[in-house]
Structure formats: structure tokens, C-alpha cells
Amino acid sequence: MRMAEPGGIAEGDLEAAGLRLSVTGEVATVSLVRPERRNAMTGRTWEALAHVGQTLSESVRIVVVKGEGSSFSSGIDLNMFRPGGVEGETSLMDRIARGSADDAELDAVIAGYQEGFRWLRRPDIVTVAAVRGHAIGAGFQLALSCDLRVLADDAQLCMKEPALGLVPDLTGTKPLVDLVGPNRAMELCLTARTVSAAEARELRLAELVVEGAELDAAVDDLVAALLAVPREAASATKELLRGAPGRTLEEQAAAERRAQAGRLTAMAAQAARG
Ligand code: CAA
């Protein structure tokens, strides 16, 4: 594994990190743009993804995450594990081999990578993964980090990490368990088997499965429907729903009351302003 150089991502470096960001009005599209490598990702890609989250315009309400070409993402760039590694990034594997990377450094590096995935849950935005072809390892975790997943019927999801001697560590285990339960999550991870689009729908890993040619249109329709709901109500509702699994019914009922009081107060203030 290679560690990104200190100093972060400068403006204009996204493409070199394998990412493209385009913003149209309230909608941002983050594309993985290494189709010749099936959108394999490096540490630099995840840093760049974190940078996108940190610098996203406040006017953006919806973020679509997609991959260019035939695959959403083939996961980590396997060169990260090979001698020579990935050009332009310091090899963490080499440091570990030399004994110069300690636990605290590893923890900090992985935490930095995870930042690229964590922001996709933010309550002020709704994130949609548009998945065609393979979503493997880190690619599957990226799709899982989004609020909603629209799959083309050729999508193939696979949590490959255990088969490579690793664990899934890019924040994908929590949504996987939340969606399919711990036993199914274990079966999927510990066999590292591939889940088809049809099975993904059954397992609630996809909100929608469409023909490949319809993927972009289906995502556009979903985005239009999401935009039709007032932003503040959507944010408050997302926060309420995301918190629900960790609360008792009593606590959730109280959270609903607080959120509704906030909405009613805001609406009354708006009405008073005319
Ligand atoms: N890393 C580096 N290169 C990759 C890559 C990857 N993850 N995936 C594909 N490529 C490269 C291939 O080596 C090939 O390069 P060449 O043209 O130079 O030969 C090119 O991309 C096209 O790939 P294929 O010819 O294999 O394309 P395909 O459509 O037949 O198959 C695929 C696509 C099923 C994704 C296959 O490429 C594959 O299995 N890739 C490896 C997937 C993998 O094991 N990823 C790691 C997941 S674990 C993870 O992500 C761990 C983590 O976060 C810690």
C-alpha cells in the first residue's frame, strides 16, 4: 500500500488521482476516470475523494458517484501491494517491510483514506451510487458508502478483501451489516463471492436495478425526485432515519419530535417573513 504525500490534493490534481468532479446547479457528479484500469483506486484517489467532500459547494444537495467505462471500480489498485507500487505515492508496504511504519502511522493513514468515504453520509447531501459492471473491494465499499444505489443489470458486487488476506476497512462493513444483517454480511465477506444485480436487489443492496442502457436515465429520474423535496426537510429526515437503528422506539419518537419542532419553527419563521 502506498501512502499519499503530505500536503494533500491541490486544485486540478483530481484527474491525476483518477477522479473527475462536475457540478451542475445543486447536483455534483464524482466520476472515477481510470476506465483502462477498470477504475482501480489508490491512496491518492481516496485523498482526492476526501478533498471533494471537504470542498464541496454548499449549494450541492445531491452527489452522484459513478465510474467511467464498463466497471464502477475494480477496487484497490493491486500495484499498491506490489514492489514498485504506484507512481507518485510513497509506499506504505515498503515502510512496513523496513519497520519504519508503526501502528499509529498505519492508523492515521487508513483514517485518512476512510475520510474519502465517510463524508458521503453527510445529512446535508444525498448520495447516489450508479453502478455498472464490477464493484469490487474498495469499489463495493464506495457504493455502500452512498445513501442509495442504482445498479445496471450487469453489476457484480464482491467484497474481495478477505480473499486477499485483508479486511474491508474503508467504512463498508457498517452499511453492509445494516443492510443485509451480520450473518449474510459474513457469508458475503468470508466467501468473497460475487453478488449479481438481481441478488443485490433481493438483499436490499440496491434500491433499483435497470437495464445497462437505462442507468443514466434512471439516476437522472431519481435525482429529479430527490430535488423535488425541500432541502431542509430532506436533511432533517435523513438524519432521523440514519440515527434510527441506534435508538430505542422511545428515543426515536423523541428525535422525531425534536426534528419536527425544528421544521415547524423554521416554517413559521419563513411564513412570518412572507
Ligand atoms: N488494480 C490494478 N489494475 C487493475 C485492477 C486493479 N484492481 N483491475 C483491473 N486492472 C487492470 C488489469 O490488470 C488490466 O490491465 P492490462 O490492460 O494492462 O492488462 C486492465 O485493468 C483491464 O482489466 P481486465 O483485462 O482484467 O478487465 P476485465 O473486464 O476482463 O476484468 C475485473 C475486470 C474483473 C475487475 C478484473 O480486472 C479483476 O479481477 N481485477 C482485480 C480486482 C481486485 O482483486 N481488486 C482488489 C479488491 S480488494 C480491495 O479493494 C482491497 C482494499 O481496499 C484494501
From TrEMBL:
The keyword Thylakoid does not apply. CDD domains: crotonase-like (cd06558). The keyword Lipid metabolism applies. Pathway: Lipid metabolism; fatty acid beta-oxidation. PROSITE patterns: ENOYL_COA_HYDRATASE. Keywords: Fatty acid metabolism, Isomerase, Lipid metabolism. Belongs to the enoyl-CoA hydratase/isomerase family. This is Enoyl-CoA hydratase/isomerase family protein. It comes from Streptomonospora halophila.
